């Protein structure tokens, strides 16, 4: 191993970042750029893959320049990414045949319904650990093949490639049309509805059910190994790409939650709670997903239960961009802190249905409990409380599946800088909420995976020893008040169900 640093590319839902980490796991420098969100119809969410690749190149340059380092000082590159978001591109030209269809997109509900007509929403859960839902990549690939002129014929001829955004970036980094590597890791593959959790490979029966040609599919690799080296004229030319993890698995890895029973909650565009189950696959009976947590090179896969919440941080963005209540996301805390409670108002942000533990695509967002007493300050508080309540929904499902009480919640992600939200979360759950020194655990996890593969770090014990507590919030609200608020939240959720029908476009 040579080099003093590891660089992580964090390709997220709203932005792409490159973060340089030193051997202590501390952030040395960062580059970040947002990309455009395309919303052509209600329920449709798209990104421009070419813009994401261009931004990736720029943020790498920003991070290296800010740290005043060169590629010779970088030991490895790790990639973490928004999972499920689907890119299909031409292997000969490198051009996408359509915009990336984002994980939040719900346009494929008719495909889900057709597949569920034979076996229900759990038709493929035994093999994949996943319910049939628009969330996952399989139906998005099929939509592109069915709706883009000539796409299916080109895919069947072997001319088109599919990948989540990790594969898109890996292919470009390692040469693109000049021999780029078409691969993904097992965590991202486990989010497609096309991989068998036992074999850890694409399943012919699943591919046939979704009518996806196998020739499109990337090779499935472990989460920590040397896949190839950066090619072309990149600022990282010759540096090994050695780690890939889907963003939530990366955050879990960055929290050093490697073992059975260890967990984390990431607060980003959405919220994602992962609890490790070790080498054992645990089938959820309470609305959670069975997924791959990580796989180190040459070792068995490790599994986890996951609760996915679609809208948390993006609700703050909606309040900023669509309602104009605030001019920056950071203002939400001050606005919410101006009142002592929510004034009786509750916001259920079911913008694209409800994810875990409900899995109700027919739900739509609602604000309930409105009176003339309610102000924008009360609504701001309800925005933050929506995240805390949705998290409790998932934590209760985790405890029901595992039979184990969660003693404390490790948290990370951009929203954890909001102390009022973190205190509200502790109050709603009735347990301590703990934030690590390095809150950017998604990028850190990708760096850890890459660094392990090249010997930059010696093993999981060294990574575990680097975890440090930064802040802790303990419950301060009387339990009877917290329980009353949560009961009202559950009532509000019921009001959102069964909204989508033939009368709703």
Summarize the structure.
It is built from 16 helices and 23 strands. It has about 500 residues and is α+β, with helices and mostly antiparallel strands.
Describe the protein in words.
The protein is of the alpha+beta class and 505 residues long. It is 33% helix and 22% strand. The protein has 16 helices and 23 strands. It has helices at residues 49-67, 109-116, 125-128, 137-147, 151-156, 165-173, 186-189, 204-209, 247-254, 313-323, 331-337, 376-402, 419-429, 441-453, 460-466, 479-496; strands at residues 5-11, 15-21, 27-34, 46-47, 74-81, 87-90, 100-101, 160-163, 183-185, 195-196, 201-202, 219-221, 224-229, 240-246, 263-267, 271-278, 289-294, 302-309, 346-348, 366-368, 408-412, 432-436, 469-473. The mean pLDDT is 94.
The biggest beta sheet reads: 7 strands, mixed
**Helical run tally:** 16
Q: What does the average pLDDT come to?
A: 94
Extended strand count: 23
**Shape, principal axes of CA atoms:** globular
Question: Which class of secondary structure composition applies to the elements?
Answer: alpha+beta
* Percentage beta strand: 15-25%
Distance between the termini: 56 Å
